[in-house]
Amino acid sequence: MSLFYDKKTKIKRGIIITIVVFFSALIITRLYQIYAKIEIIDYDKYNVNESSLTIGEKKKEDLTVTEMLENATDSVVGVSRLKDNGNTVFTQNGVSQMGIGSGVIISESGYILTNEHVSGAKYGSCYVTMEDGKNYNANVIWSDSNLDLAIIKINMKCVNYAKLGDSDNLRVGESVYAIGNPIGFEFQKTVTSGIVSALNRTIIFNESEQSAIKNENNYSRNNENDIYMSNLIQTDATINPGNSGGPLINNDGEIIGINTVKITSAEGIGFAVPVNVIKPIIQKLEKDGKFEEASIGVFAYDKDVIPYLNSNIKFDTGIYIAQISMDSPAFNSGLQIGDVITKVDDVVLEKMCDLREYIYSKNIGDTVKLTIFRNNKEKTLDIRLSKKQ
User: Fold this and answer.
1) Catalytic residues, which ones?
2) What is the CATH superfamily name and number for domain 74-153?
3) 342-377 pLDDT, tens per residue?
4) Angle 233-237-243 (CA atoms, 0-180°, nearest 5)?
């Protein structure tokens, strides 16, 4: 009897073992099939790991920005109406006393972009301080007080010069860098970074106050000394007085603006003049070695400025003629103060800078066609450009 039960027990145990082995084999086979379909990256083969991919890309990006800024700062110079005595930072109001600012070399021929309030007016002279501390005499080839821009020239071949970008393609939020001499040559080529905070800004400032943001609480409607600057790039990149005339550059190291003013009553609000407006002048200087400015003889306001001048004037497209020079082609053409110019030839006008940029590309003696609105009626006028006085 005992022998019978022992035999029966052995049979059961054998069956259980067989079942366990069968299912174990089945599971192992299934796991192998799943594992075989998984793509395994051999990191040793490529000599990389997950963390090095991220860190490597970051290092490459940082290196690119660093190299870009090194190249960009090589073209930035100091500009002053007086020779640097090497002690400006220790002198009370040294920056303002010497008219110290910045500039950026834009060609091998020695042309330099800066602000008019830094270099002085056209046909004047100023001094350019290079990275090695040497001073060079510079002539003011062209300037415009309404834009606060100037082109000066030194008589030397410049190896390091910056490339002009396209300010019309700027977008809010884009990274930008301001370069200049914030409080004098002792802190030359200081770089600050930020973003494009806004585009097509209009600011209003009094000559005695220097600057004030476009705001109903920050300007005088009846003050004839108020000056309007429009179509400006607003940035939060730090801009100090000595940065004036220095470049505002994009991630490609291209100049997209020239730093001009800062709102002193607030932090992180600075402005730059878009570079596209001055491109036609630079192209002519490079091609012909000179620039004779053609002129219509009008000054017009952008539509964003008009509400501050007269809230009853309304228009959607164009620029409002506020001033006509008596000795200009516009004076005898039939143009009137209050007309709205909507087009010059086939170019639609949204800003005064659009008109300036187009006329800068023309020559003295050329004829342009203006499309204007007066009393809700459209008219066209042909005007022959003359030399700007």
Assistant:
1) 117, 148, 244
2) Trypsin-like serine proteases (2.40.10.10)
3) 999 989 998 888 999 999 999 999 999 999 999 889
4) 85
